Every structure is written in structure tokens, then in C-alpha cells.
What does this fold into?
Amino acid sequence: MSSMYEQLSDTDDQPASILSKAFNVLSVFNADQRVLTLTEIARASGLPKSTTHRLLRRLIPLGVIESHGQGFKIGLPMRRLASAMPIESLRESALPHLGSLHRWSGRHVHLGGLRGDRVVFVERFLVPGHKLPSASPGMDLPAHASALGKSMLAFVTDQELEAVLAKPLAALAPNTVTDPKDLLTELQNVRSRRVSVARGESHVDVTCVAAPILIRGRAVGAISVSTTANDNAVDRALIDAVRVTADRISRDNQRILAQGNEIWFPGID
It folds into this structure.
């Protein structure tokens, strides 16, 4: 018997499909653009206004999109899907530890996960009034260009790492590591130290210190503290604090998985 995927026709897999267009509409919403008008959605998604209107009419009855005054917003029922992600358990257990690290360090704190060669931001604690660049939850960056990403890349399988190194390593800032050999050497050091420091690699003005959250040898996530590139206070105390915080989150999650939830993060034995 053929699988569901095998039964799909070629036209179902085309970028112009209605499903792809619907995701184009959803993707224009973010932490800074929570409510958008029809015109704004059409412009940001690159879809004709008439097409955008038809999609919204389909998505609203499903609860995916909701009307909000003269505009639209992501529907509250979508929160159920986010809460069903295994990484949501990681996020929830990490919140108290991230809060403590944020208060102690007085700097931006992030939680992220790895998807292929991209690091996806899951949670953040910001310093009010601080203009330092910060990625909002759901945004992603090339993993090789951030301390957060490299702290997880250091613990992927050889096959997964080969796939990352086989692709061009784009430079986001002057200090981004773009040579595969240099990146491999750095990842080996990160693996032994369980911490990554990146100065001016994702952004010229940003320094990050990150550590992986390890479950059975696999980095199921990572945390980071970000500060200005010229911050001389990136010292041993800060590095140790990030690493210890990651270890505490790991221990909490190992207890959660031991309660019959091992499938959430299989990891590597």
C-alpha cells in the first residue's frame, strides 16, 4: 500500500499550492508585527490582494487567523499547536533558570533549538531599553554564525555535520567563520569545553556566550547570553554561569523524560 506522501500528486507539492500560500500569509506575522491589515499582509507575503483575501476567508473559520479591529492576527487556537511541540517542555522547564541568568548577568538571554543548519530562537529575556539586536522567537539564523548554533552543532552526528559543512558558509558579519576546516576545529573545541563564544559573528556589534543543553549526548537546545562586542566583562564567571545554567536545565529535563516521555528527545546513547 502506498503511503500518504506517495499518493500526493506533483501539483500538491508545488510552491504555488494553497497550503504554501497559506503559510506565506502566516509567516508575515512576528513579535513586532502582531496585527496586520489586508494590504500589509499582501505586501509582506508577495501575494495578490485578492488571493490574500480569499486565504483569510478560509483561515478565519478554522481559527488559524482572527479578525482584530481593522486588521488580522494569528488565532489563539494556534497556541495549542505550539504547546504540543516537545521543545515546549524544554522551554517551560528552562524559564526559571533563564530568568535567574538574566537577572544575574543583566544581559539578553536566549534559548534556541537546531534545525538542520539553522538555529531557531525559542525564547528570550531582554534588558529593557537596550538596543542590542536580538532575534525574536521563531526567527532563525545560520547555525555556524552564532554561538548558540555552534554549541549545538558540536554535538550532532558526523553525517549531520558533513551536510552542514558541505554547504557554503555565509558571512553575516566580519568575524563569521566561513571556512569549513576552521569551523570544524572550533566545533571540536566547543565539544570539549561545552561552551561557545562568538564575537561579532552574527552581528558586528554582538558578542554571545552559549552552552548546549545535553540529553543523552545530544544537544536538544542551547542557551546564550548576548552583549555588546566590546564588553570586557565576558569573563570566566559569565562563561561558567552559562554552562551551569544549561546543565541545570538538562538535569530538569532528564527527570521529565524519565517520567515516560523519552520519545520527546531520543538523543544518542
